[in-house]
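Protocol step 6 of 9: fold each sequence in the batch and record its structure tokens directly after the sequence line. For illustration, a two-sequence batch is reproduced in full.

Sequence one:
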Amino acid sequence: MKEYKKHKVYFFDYLWWLGEKAQEHYQGQPRRPDGEAMFTGYIIFFVMMPLMFLLLHLGVFRLYAIALVISLGLIWAFWLPRKIWPPHRQRAIMEHYAGRKFSPLRAYAALYFPVAAFGGLMIIQINIIEAKKQKEQAVRKVDPETTRRLLKQMQADTTYTHHPWYNGIGRKRP
């Protein structure tokens, strides 16, 4: 019998195990999560989304940066699980969690947490964008030529028709 080296078990290993057990639990039903789907969801939410939001707020080559992050993230999310969990590591993780009870509720909560968090993050992002638009609309850009013309007109006006205390005909308001 071949002796395997001891593996440390991390949070992503637990997610992978939850996904694999969910797939075993619902065997035969289409579109059920597996270990890679769990890992991919967390990588997309915790790595790709913060990078994309950061790049959007910084305004760094928006289209090219987003395309780069998405392509690297997808390559990473679909290539990395095969590198992290080769068959011998998969067996070691399954042996480590062999005595644990599987809960479908916990598996789906872990699967849909990134989706719910992404929805909340999108709501916050939309509110930030709307606040920026309102702030930009509130601050008017004044044409310097118009300001100079008005100032010259007010200096040349001897009847104080533009002064707020006067009613436009040179007499003080009562």
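Sequence two, same batch, same settings:
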Amino acid sequence: MNGIIEGQTIFVVAAYVVTWLTLGGYAASLLIRGNKRPPEDS
């Protein structure tokens, strides 16, 4: 059973990397978009 778990660890790591890259890219795009646009409230 350990061999199976160890063999699938790469998929778990890859899933985490893809998730963080997606969230990070989305957050970065929001920050860039928010900084380019002049604030409407103040």
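Proceed to step 7 once all outputs are recorded. Observation for sequence two: Helices lie at 2-36.
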